[in-house]
Amino acid sequence: MASSSSSSSPAPRFTYHVFLSFRGEDTRKNFTDHLYTALTQSGINTFRDDDEIRRGEHIESEINHAIRQSKLSILVLSSDYASSRWCLDELALIMDRRKTHGHIVVPIYYDVLPSDVHALSGSYGEAFAQHRNCFDEDVVDRWREAVSQLEHLQPHLVLQDRYESEFVQDVVKQVAKLLNRTLVDVSTHLVGMDYRAGLVNLWLQNESADATVAAIYGVGGVGKSTIAKIVYNQNFDKFDAGSFLADIRSVSGQPNGLVRLQRQLLSDLTKGSAPKVYGADEGIVKIKDALYRKKVLLILDDVDHSEQLDVIMGLLQWFHKGSKILITTRHQHIMGAHAVSLMLKVKELDDKESIQLFSWHAFGGADRPDDGYELLSKEAVDRCGGIPLALQVLGSSLCGKSNEVWESVLQRLKRVPESDIQSIFQISFGSLEDDHDRNLFLDIACFFNGMDVDYVARIAGGCGFFAFVGIKNLTRRCLVSISEENKLTMHQLVVEMGREIVRQESVDDPGKRSRLWDHKDSFMVLKEKKGTDLVKGLTLDMHKGSPHYQTQSQNSDSKGNVSKRQRRLGFFHHKPADSTSQGSFSIQSAARMQKLKLLHLNDVKFKGDYKNFPRNLVWLRWKGFPMECMPNELSLEKLVVLDMRNGNLKYLWKETKFLPELKILNLNHSQNLVRTPNFNGLPSLERLLLKDCASLTELDESICDLKGLELLNLQDCTSLRKLPADFGTLKSSLCVLILSGCLNLQQMPKDLSEMESLKFLAADGVGKNQAQSISTLSFSIFPSNLLSLSLADCNISTLPIRFTHMPFLQSLNLSKNPFGYLPEDINKLGMLETLELELCTKLEALPELPTSLSILKADDCSSLNRIANLPNLLEWLDLEVHGCERITEIGGLFRLDRLSSIDTEVLSNLGLFDLESFEGIEIEMSNALSCTTIKTPIQVLQECNIFSTFIPGSEVPDWFNIRVEESSSLSMVLPAASGLKIRGLSLCTAYTGKWESEEEKETSLVDENYLKIINETSGVKWCYSPMFFGIPGAKVAGSRNSMLWLSHWTFGEYLEAGDELHIVMDLAACFEVQGCGIRVIYEQQQESSKGKEIAESSSSSRNLSGYEVGRDAYLLSHHMFLTHQAAPRDDWDDLSGYEYLFEPNASEDEYVTDDEM
Q: Judging by DSSP bridges, how do beta strands 736-738 and 711-713 pair with one another?
């Protein structure tokens, strides 16, 4: 079948995410194999040539095809890579593809220096010297040119002396980021998990008309969460929305924990635009709304109480059909009344799997023990009982150790019960060679689990630890991991082990322990003055520690619900309790702990002279500090982090304080703060956080002397009127500036354009309350190096003519502004990934957008009627245009036109001959993309080479010479007509709504409508779901209103006389099909030029490859772009997950023979 193409054809589809180019003899069985496994387990579909392509005379075309079918290529540049002509051919093809199609290339320098590769020296120089003697000069020059381009590629990754396992993990993270994929962290080397995850995948791939729940259970550390992560990574992009809620047991035990989980779920479901939630009951209602019409993958990790399920997932019937909920738990019977379709117990690893996983960690990536360690390894593995976490931790602790150390550790293991995982962890902890590492581990377990790595590293450095080296050592021992969000994370079992080690320091007397993390212990030690110099860290939240503290119970119920009246009165803002209800301790209680370095308090008050307060504090976090000013006698000279958020401070201190080590000062939500301190005493300050300091009117001029200040957050400082005159002196250090919500700020900093270090600027609502707001915007006031700019709700009515002043911009937010257009050259922003235009109610059209765009948010742009293009919609674009009720055209996708604008030949092919009879008639139509309805004169939709219109009517017109009544499908053989070629098909569907009233109609789902054509002869299948659909009126005088859907398919090149067709009208459940008809349109002797022009320029080209979801199976729909984005798979012949789109429903057929035509 012939096909044509045009510039408007959809972007190409990808069978693979990644193409791996590597020298097999160098890396096939080690690094490349580990990288391939890690990519695959992270859900990244990767092509690796394991003799999948036969080397031969067609190598270039075959490799080129594989590269074309991949979005990104990884080049594993090993020392012998350039000696292979096959590798250099691949490299040249990949770099050509990068030049012509923007193919993403990531070079990895494995055991080779980048400088040797770029300069063609070392092994690369030797290889090219050999090639000059063996190949034509043109061939070698092409290879040389390809190598020369590597120098300019970013990112490039260099192994050098790093551990391969860590390096592989970094590669996966970089690739995931470049692919714009949301992933959860999975260990780089897993054993036995693919098989176990496969069992869950079988359940996931089982299509069901309803939402279903599965639970996987087993002992702690057996791999339940790991399996859930693998399953999520491999499947999340097959759903409309996905959410992985980790560590539910731990999070739900924290203040407002369940509400925080609800907020995360809402954010995931709404892709970051979640409404605020103040209580669990309110949250569950909003979750129900957010689940509407979304096919969702939800992972609930580590559930230990049925109430958690009730509060987070609500009722199963709220979930859209096809949704999947996967629960991990240690408790088999946790599900209670919740219906579960699969209960899977995760079994421990068998002996072979255990030795393999243990060897990987104990012997530097090997699959089996080193010679001489076989028996020792077996003995160690037997003690772990097949628990993966225990095998990882114990193996890592023995890595590189002598036989004597191994035997000593195993002797200690013999004294503990077999598979006692806590004892195994403690032995691993004891094997840490450095006291710094052991103390850092205990600090993380007791105080810093889940916190930002850089934040913790600053504090640890102030305590005398080599922080980053220590963290790296702990990650190598598998005692700590680092999340995608750069958070330190510990498995809960490891946390429990660390805290138990501290508890054992003094079982009966908490005051003699090094760390007090239990709030009740901390309360008792302070109340009874039992602290000692042994205490180095203490945390106390009075809501948890004091048996008499009633604030939580007075203001909320057991789920954390806050009443509407309390919210209206401001109770949801944290305010320190007054002295009559707040816990109060003698200053002597703290004075007894002079070695204290880490102190975290919430709503705590001390009475007495602060000169005796601990003088060695490195980290002081005091939420709800009750005084208006910090006592002058309080000694803070060693502080690295001072966090006084949500306090009663008016002034931080009255005199200039000299804190030479202070790097982070957090005064967020200090509602009474009227001025900042003099910063001359804070020479090392890097981060200053003043969010929601509503009484702050100005910043001290000395802020301009902070030459190391990197981040300044002034969000919602609503009284702030100006910034210091010399603010531009921060131009060499300041990277992040947040001014959003500074409604009374009179002007932007004068020297803003000269701040070359500034990368992120947020100024939403700046100056909104000023008479002279930013009505006309000149981008020349902003620095040219900006990566992210947010100017939402700034009353901007006119934008600059050009955007090219900021060529590196990746994110632009102009939401809630009254401008009417975007500059045409926005498509010149070649690095722009995110564009936000929500609630720009005067915006009428969008110009051509850059192909780099991956997120477009334009909800509720009520005047928007035309979008010039939506790049990559069917591949990866995250699009939100809900509430844009006037959209009638998106270039290259669809257009809605009045009858008077349509060529008469097209109208006649739709069966419309008497246009005057339609004058004055209005119909109601739904827009599936914007989720809106409009009332409009009868119009024609042009989409996917199909013309459609909707008109009132209840019977299929006689013009459709093949008709069936009370049936939604028919089969036929296409007849020949005097040698004329078939030009297309015209179809009619008569249908009515099932609703009894307008109110019932409003709640009906009207967008899931399909017209399916299956060519049984050629095997080609089409499923069309139109952007717009006509909605019949409600029942009037006992009879229902009906409509006709008329469509003309210009698919003649795909059809031949004698083809057997099966046609199905599969409409939403709220509609009832009354009959259908078809007419075959043949070539005429003469075609009008207008008719040709319209057919050729209809919203999609005739090349339908961009709509293919399986071999010869085409989903012709744009509003179902999420389904398209989920379609790329290894096996193109497998329609698994998409069968419902092409189901023939043959049992309902009426077969039409030639005699009936």
A: parallel
